[in-house]
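Structure ticket #2291
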Amino acid sequence: MEQEVIQKGKKKSKLLMWIIIVNLILWPIAIYLILDSSQPGQFTPGIQTYSILDSFPNITPGQKDALVTALNYLNTMPFSYRGLIAQLEYEGFTRDDAVFAAQNCGANWKEQALIAAQNYLSVSAFSKKGLIEQLKYDGYTQDQAEYAANNCGADWNEQAALAAKNYLSIMPFTKEELIEQLKYDGFTQNQAIYGAKANGYK
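Resolution: structure written out below.
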């Protein structure tokens, strides 16, 4: 019976994660529509964009359009290097132009990972391990993901408490089941115990 409850909890964990992932897939599309970028090159470049473009006097039209598009995206939401290239290719830019834009947009990928981490933590509870894995899924490197997790300001005990609260709002758990579920999500033993106690378990 306990195993069945834990398995149900694990399924809920995966469901919550997929909801977040789906939202991340939809966000770029939504921003794409908001910025009216269905035709490359329709943006009105800002000062930063002009400054960067001035650094490439021999830039091709395709590279210019990809770079301007990349800069507009980065002014709206965080991207990993791989994620930005994939998004630009999705919009119809060639692989070469997308790579050129990602390599020359001036983004600090560690800082992009940090912003992404803070965005995640603003909508859901994560363990440090879980957050790192999510960022890696988004295309950030191990080093970038660890930087974000180490500098996002999260209190992992409180994240465990919030995760426990979220689980308990869905279904009942014994203290032992809740601790095991939190450990499954990447929280340490001590963090999981803290999370359970913070929600009324002695």
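Closing remark: Confidence is low (pLDDT under 50) at residues 1-6, 18-47.
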